[in-house]
Please model this.
Amino acid sequence: MGKYIGPVCRLCRREGEKLFLKGQRCFSPKCAFERRGFAPGQHGKGGGRGGSERVSDYARQLRAKQKARRVYGVLERQFRRYFGAAQRTRGLTGLNLLQVLECRLDNVVFRMGWADSRAQARQIVNHGHFTVNGIRSDVASMILHPGDALAVREGSRNETFFKEMPDLAERRTCAVWLDRDVKSLSGRLIRIPERSEIDGNLNEQLIVEYYSR
Model:
């Protein structure tokens, strides 16, 4: 499956805010957004597309959709499939979409504190270091359901990264809709997250409006 391989900090600059795509680096002076907080390109720094111009409804909807895609590291084709599945599910389409994204395996690994960023979580999942319900999984986009259990694979626990993981995880918070056992490097999805437990900077209504044009 394709993936974005360009400069990550450029995405934050395009959205005009930190998306925390590089983990701890985003909190350090090395963060590119701190040094160049304007949008990339020739119009980014007070060019012909100044901030005083009126932003169209389409532009707001597009930015909301792009922002959500970039936060979760999902390309357009897959994001559209998630939206289609959310539409077919009973309830609010926008909330359904965010809940599906939150229940991706790579995001659950990140939310449990096993990784510094979603990108790092995706990498260690793709390398086959985790099991889901006792079965090795290397599919970062796998959707987990309440009751599903994940753990670091036995064959990976002797690697330096995973030996240090318990100490690192202790300093990171775990989402309230997940259960985490730091010592055994395992966890479980207890329930689907509520809207208040998902990033409040995401505007799912604008995403629904974008795909409903």
In short: Residues 81 and 179 are 28 Å apart (CA to CA). Residues 47-52 have pLDDT under 50 and may be disordered.
